[in-house]
Amino acid sequence: EFVKQCQYSCGGFGASIHHDPHLLYTLSAVQILATFDALNTIDIDKTVSYVKELQQEDGSFYGDKWGEVDTRFSFCAVACLALLNKLHAINIEKAVEFVVSCMNFDGGFGCRPGSETHSGQIYCCLGTLSILGRLHHINADLLGWWLCERQLPSGGLNGRPEKLPDVCYSWWVLASLKIIGRLHWIDKEKLQNFILASQDEETGGFGDRPGDMVDPFHTLFGLAGLSLLGDERLKPVNPVFCMSEEVVARLGVRHQLLSL
Predict the structure, then answer these.
(1) Which of the residues 166, 178, 242, 255 is marked catalytic?
(2) What pLDDT score was predicted for residue 71?
(3) Is residue 160 annotated as a catalytic residue, yes or no?
(4) Measuring CA to CA, how many Å separate 44 from each of 80, 128, 214?
(5) Can you tell me the mean pLDDT for 138-144?
(6) Tally: H helices and E strands in the chain
(7) Which of 128, 192, 211, 217 has its CA 20 to 30 A from that of 158?
(8) Can 163 be counted among the known catalytic residues?
(9) Can you tell me the mean pLDDT for 93-109?
């Protein structure tokens, strides 16, 4: 009921009631409703129209009506429409063209053409290309090398060179490696130990690194990372949608994964 109250007449969703609609929160809303098998409780056609109208001539997507362009929004748009089985609503070839234009010499991706490579943007671009079946554009070995270099002596992963490790990159980096079939290129045991050391024994939540305050954001990505590492106490998580594999299978959503 809360999620439904966050939908606007335009079809988009805000982060909370009375918050402006945005692609980020529209994807989150669709993911939540899909998880609870409740997509039929919203106006899907309006949501599709909202996403479609945010695509620009070059294939990129605005995050909202104010016009910021970012590859995160490309992923949000494509993932949202894939979950709704409405990918045909957008110009797929143009969307692919824009994402590929954001590829850098190191095999990674930035938020826009010429922007610095970042693990979060890599995940978004790989996710977009995976859903659209265009992973042939990727140099998997080159990108895999950049991603595995994100692992630090502590076992944790950072988002880009010279940054501190952060539990959230246990998702962005790991999921990216999984998509391109290079997950075995990192030390899984050391990463697992880093993630578990970041858990608060009293509350059960996870922080960004050992000893720091816990929050829902890092708890989600810590658990998702552990799932990708094969923790049998957790349900398998889909590396593209960050949702249960059971839910993705129920929806019949197709996506592409590479192998070595």
Answers:
(1) 166
(2) 99
(3) yes
(4) 11, 21, 35
(5) 98
(6) 11, 0
(7) 128
(8) yes
(9) 99
Q: What is the pTM of this model?
A: 0.97
Told to judge if 10 belongs to the known catalytic residues of this protein, a careful annotator would answer: no
Tell whether 66 is covered by a domain.
no
Q: What is the CATH number of the domain that holds 160?
A: 1.50.10.20
In the residue annotation, 19 being an active-site residue is answered as no
Single-letter amino acid code for the residue at 137: H
Q: How confident is the model over 4-41, as pLDDT tens digits?
A: 999 999 999 999 999 999 999 999 999 999 999 999 99
Task: Write down the pLDDT at residue 260.
Answer: 78
Q: pLDDT-based confidence at 125, cuts 50/70/90? A: very high
Residue 25 catalytic? Answer: no
From 72, 150, 218, 255, the catalytic residue: 218
d(CA 243, CA 235): 10
Q: Are 165 and 156 in contact (CB under 8 A)?
A: yes
Per annotation, catalytic residue among 22, 72, 118, 150: 118
> Is there a domain that residue 102 lies in?
no
In a domain, 20, yes or no: no
166 is catalytic: yes
**Structural domain contains residue 54:** no
Among candidate residues 160, 188, 190, 209, the one labeled active-site is: 160
| 210's tokens | 């050992």
Give dist(CA 91, CA 260) in Å, integer: 30
> How many domains are there within the chain?
1
Q: Which of 215, 235, 250, 254 is catalytic?
A: 215
Show the tokens assigned to 155.
């076992």
> Is residue 45 annotated as a catalytic residue, yes or no?
no
Known active-site residue 208: yes
Residue 139 belongs to domain spanning: 133-260
Q: Which pair of tokens denotes residue 148?
A: 């595995």
Question: Would residue 218 show up in a list of annotated catalytic residues for this protein?
Answer: yes
246-260 pLDDT, tens per residue?
Answer: 999 999 999 999 997
